[in-house]
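Quick one: structure tokens for this chain, please?
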Amino acid sequence: MSRLSTGYLERCLTRVCSLALLTVLLEASISACLPSRAGYSGHRGSGIAGPQRADSHIVVFKSNVSAEQVEDHHVWLQQARISSFTEVDEPDFQIAFDLGTSDVNAQWPRTEEKSFNISSFIVGYFGHFGNALIEQIRRHPNVDRVEPNHEVPILSHPKGPEIQRAAPWGLARISHRRPLRLDGNHSYLYASEAGLRVDIYIIDSGINVEHDYFEDRASWGHVIPGMVEEDTIGHGTHCAGIAAGRIYGVAKRANVVAVKPLDKDHARLSNILKAIEYVVDRHNIAKSRRGYKGAVANMSIGTLDRLQLLNDAVDAAVRAGVHFAEAAGNGNEDACEYSPAGALLAITVAASTIQDERASFSNHGKCIDIFAPGLEIESTWIGSRNATYVLEGTSMASPHVAGLVAYLLSLQPSSHSAYAVDGYLGPEKMKAIIRSLATVGALAKLLEGTANLLAWNGGGASNVTPSTSASA
């Protein structure tokens, strides 16, 4: 529909003299005719709609009105506007003329209505109409209803990120794009979901599940027969605190489950295979749990040479739907020659420093998927309910990413939700998300062929998606 039909303009030519006179009068008195801000008023209706403009309305046509009838209605509306100009109390003077334009149509009454058509189910228009004109519109045979143009408020404000002040540098680094200051004044930005309804399995030396920083979210899962449910060396507890501890953790609301294949500081390959089997079995059972959002495994253990069976076992778990983060190794060598760092489907994590450099000990090469903080990392420890300790290594970098995976999973609808997209967010897609979100080019002292990607959590946003720019 045109804003003003040619036929209508021709019919209006007979009114030139009277309109010219009206324009002169208008220029002298238009400021008195303009609606004041007092025209805004509160609304006592449903409690949802807010303030409304006194002269702004929405007109809805009846469902059986044809396109031709709609066109005829707009022609009628222009004629009704002309007749309304003689009414002193009409605010249509403001709407009908634009004295600041050189357009020839500015000399003539013109419409300011905007039409809408919602899939042909609801068709209408909205604009500013004076009191007399709006009553004529209400009585038009093709009009179903006329409603004030309410302002509809947001029912709840979007929640901003949670902020952990005086946070460990590792947490701060993965929630900011820019390099950190070195004065120790760091903040961790994170969404409030923070790993909720996600299980993180720590395949390691065990967890001090009584530690206060786990807030009753830590439990024992699988222990190799003959071993005790106790972390006697602290390594697993330290990793668990980075992944999900209240103070040191990335995913502060995730569950952490101790899976212990280690005897002292080493484990038989067969015990690791049984540990991986346990994680897959528990994930398959948990998938039927309402609200469940996924399983993540962290392996900060590995061999100094390539064991294809271990790589294959990890890849099998990933194919079964378990997200895996694994340490790249601390030999300053090619990570592809370590296991399970050389596994194809897991996320292999190298270590960075607070100065945004590759840690000198960290493995490197094409098997590195991403970097995360791994030098001078403080976390939970053994011996008491509030013990802490500082360690370094790719063992510390990996749980940063395991926690990040759990964190991102918690931001998605559960697989049972009607809002879930393509069901469960699988490991392959998650690995791509982790890499696409990463801060690109932040790290120095990288060897050729190593991806320059530093883990990032979206800066505390709760609507992180795969399309989020890696350079934002």
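Residues 3 and 111 are 6 Å apart (CA to CA).
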